[in-house]
């Protein structure tokens, strides 16, 4: 006998998940429902995340920080489990997923993969517990999509390093206890582990954002910040360092974007079933059903794609071009799903009483950070043709 059709899982993708995967998903979903969803509209409206440090500790307690890393207090989860967590967090809000992505996939990942044993022991356990928040400084005011041109400079002074420059649009910057900063040196681009109480370091918060309002975004100012010789990440030189961290974080976004899309889709279905016009629920009109059907198709195709990439990551065979494929498709489709959901909700679609507009505006940032649509098109274009069209 064939299984019954489940509207929440029309392709039966849950069959791909193990009991452990489902347990991780349920834990994160329950946490987000309890700790984020009741407050997120207010935080968004106020443009702040007042309990960020509490949330970070709680996320640490459920193993969500540096989740797929091993040792040093990290959970050692699979890539699929990490992806499921990202999806559930972003179904609550992209800002919460960003907090977790930057902590785990950018700051912790950089130290875990490229750091010295002492750097790992000093920072990773406290970061995994959410006691220390990390940020990742690559983007500069004049260098975004082209980080190879970054200007922040680290010069030698005796055995010390002295860092000067500015970083822009840095998630968690003002609340971070440690910043992983990428700077030019005489030997190429290097990563530095910078305690944020170092003299000369400051991180003014960027205000007036109309996207990711429940997320801290900052400038980093490095004004002759003096660091000891062992502040440099010893295991990598060149752009390969930051790019491999970004690839890990982008993988989480492939899943996360589908969380935002799922939240909007569910809001649209619920609204369409109950909102009546012309004497019947708007979900009974063919034009609305076409929207919902198309949204469901893209949503679950996107989740299937994320799952496939997760399995490749777990097998150690995931290519950066495949991550670009996933990020390009899933964020682009997620934003389209949110915009379509907005139309189903009519005027209510623009209200913070519903999650739709919040997710749609959040996804404008997600579309841009970790490589814009155009950058991922260029990555794929180069892979498909062998021709580099970046410059
Ligand atoms: C909320 C938020 C949080 C962020 N958090 C972080 C963080 O934690 N750490 C960090 O380092 N950065 C972070 N960023 C920065 C983000 O990674 C950059 O914004 C992104 O890389 C794009 O850079 P840019 O904004 O300077 O745009 P630009 O690079 O100036 O691009 C502008 C436009 O030109 C297009 N473009 C550029 N070059 C080409 C080309 N060759 N061909 C075709 N089109 C091109 C781009 O695709 C884009 O559409 C964050 C950004 C936001 C919005």
UniProtKB/TrEMBL annotation:
Residues 135-225 form the Acyl-CoA oxidase/dehydrogenase middle domain. Its cofactor is FAD. It holds the Pfam family Acyl-CoA_dh_N. One of its GO terms (molecular function) is glutaryl-CoA dehydrogenase activity. SUPFAM superfamilies: Acyl-CoA dehydrogenase C-terminal domain-like (SSF47203), Acyl-CoA dehydrogenase NM domain-like (SSF56645). Residues 19-131 form the Acyl-CoA dehydrogenase/oxidase N-terminal domain. The keyword Transit peptide applies. GO terms for biological process: fatty acid beta-oxidation using acyl-CoA dehydrogenase; fatty-acyl-CoA biosynthetic process. Residues 238-384 form the Acyl-CoA dehydrogenase/oxidase C-terminal domain. Keywords: FAD, Flavoprotein, Oxidoreductase, Transit peptide. Belongs to the acyl-CoA dehydrogenase family. This is Acyl-CoA dehydrogenase.
């Amino acid at each position: 006998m064939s299984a019954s059709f489940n509207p929440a899982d029309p392709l039966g993708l849950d069959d791909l998940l193990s009991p452990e995967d489902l347990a991780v998903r349920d834990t994160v979903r329950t946490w987000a429902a309890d700790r984020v969803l009741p407050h997120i509209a207010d935080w968004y409206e106020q443009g702040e995340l007042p309990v960020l440090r509490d949330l970070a500790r709680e996320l640490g307690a459920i193993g969500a920080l540096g989740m797929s890393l091993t040792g040093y207090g990290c959970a050692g989860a699979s890539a699929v489990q990490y992806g499921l967590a990202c999806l559930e967090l972003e179904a609550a809000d992209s800002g919460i997923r960003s907090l977790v992505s930057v902590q785990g996939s950018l700051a912790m990942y950089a130290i875990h993969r490229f750091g010295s044993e002492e750097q790992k022991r000093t920072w990773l356990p406290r970061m995994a517990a959410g006691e220390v928040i990390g940020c990742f400084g690559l983007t500069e005011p004049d260098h975004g999509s082209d980080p190879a041109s970054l200007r922040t400079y680290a010069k030698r002074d005796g055995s010390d390093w002295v860092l000067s420059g500015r970083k822009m649009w840095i998630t968690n910057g003002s609340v971070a206890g440690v910043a992983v900063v990428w700077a030019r040196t005489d030997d190429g681009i290097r990563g530095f582990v910078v305690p944020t109480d170092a003299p000369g370091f400051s991180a003014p918060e960027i205000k007036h954002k109309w996207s990711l309002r429940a997320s801290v975004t900052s400038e980093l100012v490095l004004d002759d910040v003096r660091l000891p010789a062992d502040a440099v990440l010893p295991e990598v030189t060149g752009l390969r360092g930051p790019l491999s961290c970004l690839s890990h974080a982008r993988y989480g976004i492939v899943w996360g974007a589908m969380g935002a899309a799922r939240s909007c889709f569910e809001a649209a279905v619920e609204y369409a079933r109950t909102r009546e016009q012309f004497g019947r629920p708007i979900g009974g009109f063919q034009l609305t059903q076409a929207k919902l059907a198309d949204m469901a198709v893209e949503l679950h195709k996107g989740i299937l794609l994320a799952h496939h990439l997760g399995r490749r990551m777990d097998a150690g065979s995931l290519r950066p071009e495949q991550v670009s494929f996933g990020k390009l498709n899933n964020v682009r489709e997620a934003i389209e799903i949110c915009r379509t959901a907005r139309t189903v909700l009519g005027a209510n679609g623009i209200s913070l009483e519903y999650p739709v507009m919040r997710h749609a505006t959040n996804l404008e940032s997600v579309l841009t950070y970790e490589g814009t649509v155009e950058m991922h098109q260029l990555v794929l274009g180069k892979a498909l043709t062998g021709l580099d069209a970046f410059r």
